[in-house]
Amino acid sequence: MIAPAGSTLWLMRHELRLTWRGLAQRRGGRRGRFANIWITLAFLVFLMLIAGAPLGFALRHVRAIPIEPLSSLIGVTIIAVTFTLMLSQTLAAAVDALYERADLDLLFSSPMAPRRVLAVRFLAVSFTVFAFFGMLVTPVLLPVAVMGHPAWLAAIAVLFCVALAASGAGLMLAAGLFRLIGPRRTRTVGQVLAAVIGAAFFLAAQARNILGGAKTASLFSTVMRLSHDARFQHVPGLSWPIRALLGEPIPLLGAIGIGAGVFLIANQVLGARFAADAAAAAGAGAGGRRTKVARRMRFSANAFAATVTKELRLIARDPALIAQVLLRVLYMLPLGFVLLRQAGQAQAIALPGSAAALSLIAGQVAGSLAWITVSAEDAPDLLSCAPAPIRTLRRAKLAAAILPVAVMLAPVILPLMVMAPWVAVSAAAGCAASIAMSAMMNVWWQRPGKRADFRRRRSSSWLVGIAEFLLGLLIATATGLVAAGLAGWGLIPAVVALVGVLMLSRSDAQIAQALRAAS
Amino acid sequence: MTDALSIRGLSKTFGAKVAVDNLSLTVRAGELYALLGPNGAGKTTTLRMVAGLLKPNSGEIGVFGHDVLGDPAAAKRVIAWAPDEPMLYDRLTPLEYLEFVAGLWGVEPAVAMPKAEELLRWLGLWDNRGERCEGFSRGMKQKTALAGALIHDPQLLILDEPLTGLDAAVARQVKDLLQARVKAGATVILTTHILEVAERMADRIGIIQHGRLVADGTLDELRARSGERQATLEDLFLELTGGEAALTEALPA
Fold it and tell me: Which of A148, A500, B226, B249 is deepest in the core (most CB within 10 A)?
């Protein structure tokens, strides 16, 4: 059936087509797209075999999950975690809709009601967010359903309702921020907030590591304790999430009602206002953001120093980039706390593991920044015209990428030098190796892109992307082993990583040739 | 006197397509030279090779005696390149942009800052010096890029379509600025599709087609060659590039 042009269904089809093409674009060319589909299918089958099938087999004789406080709390936790993770994505999408306008001007200039345009856009956002989670959950649920629990497939419907509610909440949050702090700050705050919300449960689960102390329980033990708490025995509605997930009709209808209700109310009440906000956001951009001239760091008459200053300034003024990097830094925080706390208490068991993880994340953050400084150059011709050697400019760009990571690592590594010198040296060496590897991979395999495409960035080959991640893992393993005092064993992954890096290295001529071929 | 630009036997191919074909061209120091040609004639490719952004397949390029291919850094020191799409950083202010470009060319801040102020005032951007370029109009961006090209006092200024998309007032400002630079002794090479601009501003004109120079000289020299003493540059251009015949063929009978 072909929806008539201009109808809601027609617009929805347009949105979904754009979303699909956006996803397909992540891998260049027809071959890349096919490779992507095959990799995704292989992953889903793998997930079905290692998680879905064993779970279905284990539960095949279980007639029903008992609805008791513990299962109810697990149900609530599942919904809350999913909602929070989805909210981080829908909030980012709402902020993007305000500022990364793309076709919104065209749609708003059409005779279609802006409210309808936005409702369709947010419905498409809900579908996209749901598709990601649905893809992870379906291969696990399908074997369970086939082996005796078909009603559990209702969890997929609940997931979509959560996506709808998260989409409505994201819209409300963005509109609220817009009213509260104005168009200019909403962009930064919204994107940073989305990153923090995305990491919220990870941070909550790591509360014990961050705060320390015997009284602070981990998330799991908190759930266990609460389930036995008398106050939670008779909370009305507490069991509804798990009942809905297990396919009980009335709670399921309730979930559908809540999800659709939040979505519809948000769009009905805020749709027109959001459209006005979008117009105001465009106006805010056109006015030009003023920058305090007096407090700026000066550019010097040296190509290296001027380029470092330029890159650092551009990084600091890019809220989307800060939000993305912040997300990774948030994951780094608990590891830093673990290192410092355990070094202080002489509990050395988790120290090597944390040092390893720190080196892995440091490499990833440096890799992200190196992509921005090396590949996402706004004016490559300007630098090519400059009478400075390309190597000098490249070194400046790498220095600008590495400097913020070094500043983030210093508060962890420096105190550790006093508390646990060997672990500190191992962690510092591991982080340095990981950062150097990521940075050089971004130079050797650079692929020019736009700063705005940071989230969709890619190296010139997905194989190189995988290799970079594996090399990071090898360096992290070496770091952990050396930190644990097993320097001899640590040499093995270190040497393998070194060989891998050397195999992937490229000369300047090869880089130039690849860039010419890509352009 | 050394020529500002000397090109000998320059060729560039992209796969099977010949973009520049054994091109030879000389631009004298202190003149404003307009390089004209139909779309895809090889103008931008030629200028990108002069600016050191593209490597030719063969040929020689000299800028004020510096070999662009042999010693690109020395040549780049005296060149400024301004493409049709301004090379700007959205999140820098015009003042910061000029400081940065000055830094790339090794100009001390003490020299660069007064110069930046002078340029921004001249181009009417001084009041916007603290605003980021992201909110600028096309004309403001073009003017900022032009100021960036001038911040290091280049001897040879190469501009690709500098007037495209500019309103009359901004276009006049840019033209005045270019003429002032030429008066001050600089050499300007520009490409443009606005033939009246070339007719009124250029000391000499080069017409390029299919990567080859089909005509070169002052407007009077070009007229004398065609035997049409009253011909406009548009007439000459269409005659030399075969555009007139194509136009006649395309017209309905």
Answer: A500
Residue B123: strand, helix, or coil: coil
CA of A410 to nearest chain B CA: how many angstroms apart? 28
Query: Across the interface, which of B76, B95, B135 has its CB nearest the CB of A386?
Result: B76
Handedness of CA A205, A206, A209, A212 (dihedral sign): negative
C-alpha Rg value of chain B to the nearest Å? 19
Tens-digit pLDDT string for chain B (253 aa): 679 999 999 999 988 889 999 999 999 999 999 999 998 899 999 998 998 888 899 999 999 999 999 988 889 999 999 988 888 888 888 998 998 888 888 888 889 999 999 999 988 899 999 888 888 888 899 899 999 999 999 999 999 998 887 888 888 888 998 999 999 999 999 998 888 888 889 999 999 999 999 999 998 898 888 887 778 888 888 888 876 666 566 555 5
ipTM of this complex > 0.85?
no
Conformation bin of residue B85: beta by default, left when phi > 0, alpha when psi is -120 to 50: beta
The answer to whether the CB of A454 falls within 8 A of the CB of A372 is yes
Strand arrangement, sheet containing B212-217 = B79-82, B156-160, B187-191, B32-36, B204-209, B212-217
How many CB atoms lie under 10 A from the CB of residue A71?
A: 18
b/e map A58-70, b = 16+ CB within 10 Å? ebeeeeebebebb
Count CB neighbours of A433 within 10 A. Answer: 24
Distances (CA, A) of B55 to A352, A472, B10, B12, B45: 51, 37, 10, 8, 10
Contact B87 A379 (CB under 8 A): yes
Is residue B42 within 8 angstroms of chain A, CB to CB?
Answer: no
Interface test with A, best of B71, B100, B140, B160 (most A CBs within 10 A): B100
**H-helix or E-strand spanning residue B204:** strand B204-209
Other C-beta atoms within 10 Å of B65: how many? 12
CB pairs under 8 A between A and B: 113
Alpha carbons A397 and A417: distance in angstroms, whole number? 29
- Say whether B77 sits in a helix, a strand or coil: helix
Q: Which of B89, B128, B131 sits opposite A379 (nearest CB)?
A: B89
pLDDT digits (tens, 9 = 90+) for B38-82: 988 999 999 989 988 888 999 999 999 999 999 888 899 999 999
Q: How many Cβ atoms sit within 10 Å of the Cβ of residue A1?
A: 3
3-state helix/strand/coil string of A275-330: HHHHHHHHHHHHCCCECCCCCCCCCCCCHHHHHHHHHHHHHHCCHHHHHHHHHHHH
Eight-class DSSP state of A64: -
The CA distance from A469 to B34, in Å, is 52
Rounded CA-CA distance B193/A57 in Å is 74
A320 CB-near residues (< 8 Å, 6+ apart): A191, A452, A454, A455
Is A387 at the interface with chain B, CB within 8 A?
Answer: yes
| pTM (2 d.p.) | 0.69
Burial readout A105-115 (b: 16 or more C-beta within 10 A, e: otherwise): eebbeeeeebb
Burial B142-161 (b: 16+ CB within 10 A, else e): bbbbbbbbbbbebbbbbbbb
Please report how the helices A114-146 and A154-205 are oriented relative to each other, as an axis angle in degrees rounded to 10. 100
B10 backbone dihedrals φ, ψ, rounded to 5°: -80, 130
Distance CA A44, CA A132 (A): 12
Pairing of strands B32-36, B187-191: parallel
